[in-house]
Amino acid sequence: MTFEVNSKNSYFDDSEVNKNITNLDIKKGKSLLELVDDYVVIDIETTGLDPSNDEIIELAAVKVKDNKIIDTYSTLCKPEQKIDGFIEELTGISNEMVKNAPKIKDVIEKYISFIGDAVIVGHNVSFDKNFIYYNYKRSTYKLWLSNDRIDTMRLARKSFPNLKHHRLRDIVEYFEINNENAHRAINDCFATNECYLKIKNYIKDNDISLKKNNSRTNNSFTRIDLRNIIAINDNFDTTHLLYKKYCVFTGKLDKMTRESAVQIVANFGGFNENNVTNKTNFLILGNNDYNSSIKDGKSSKHKKAEQHILQGNDLQIISENVFYDIINDE
């Protein structure tokens, strides 16, 4: 199989890419498009977006059995690095709040034990699971967290394809769910659980099939951004997180070329942009170490994306590893 990039008339072999993606997802479980009654909802808050470098500052989980909450877990965590102004404004968690909190290494095993072998439910859950996985590995040197996962964002896109956005706050608003103190982990767990329950009922009441829905789109979706990158075919999984989403890359990717990455976005029915705009849905962060002109580890695209998020735009900043998890979600 090859990746075709028409703008450069060149081809990219994806065999090494697929091998790297598979290795990244070892023991991380499968992504499910299912309705279950026993599960654990998870949510975390972090100092940044890269699981291999940034830290967890809040852990929360809600245990559900027969669709009823039976237990909860929540704790702040003291990071080694300072919480910057953007994260404090987004989450409401300050350096003062975490100064006497336990370190992640002292609570991560208790958190993992609370989750047990349950199916994990979360909104954009790959982000949370990646952070938990890497922190558990760093703290205990164990490769763990093989739980299967259900992403309520993916279910929402399947159930409500006509909604403009499918962020947690959009689904909360759609169902008129109260979520005060959003972006605090335990509150987002409760909100995600309410959304999941309502989505399940909606799917059952409307007899919505959860099988992958490959729909053929018109030619306007095969031309991606200014570089005219053409998808290999136009049979897209319309529930995939990248479908019809606008993506921007910044920094050098470690495990594939930029050309291969944008081709993958196109193959999932997504759009590539050169710069962050009001339309951007995902900013994927590569490694900016090569660029000595970048201060504080944030490119101009990164800083612009943060401004858009604080303004309420439907934009997520994700690391390269989270991007690989998303494109490998089956």
TrEMBL record:
Xref: PROSITE patterns: BRCT
Domain BRCT stretches: 237-330
Sorted UniProt keywords: Nucleotidyltransferase, Transferase
CDD domains: BRCT_DNA_ligase_like (cd17748), DEDDh (cd06127)
EC number(s) on file: 2.7.7.7
Residue ranges the record marks as coiled coil: none
Protein name: DNA polymerase III PolC-type (PolIII)
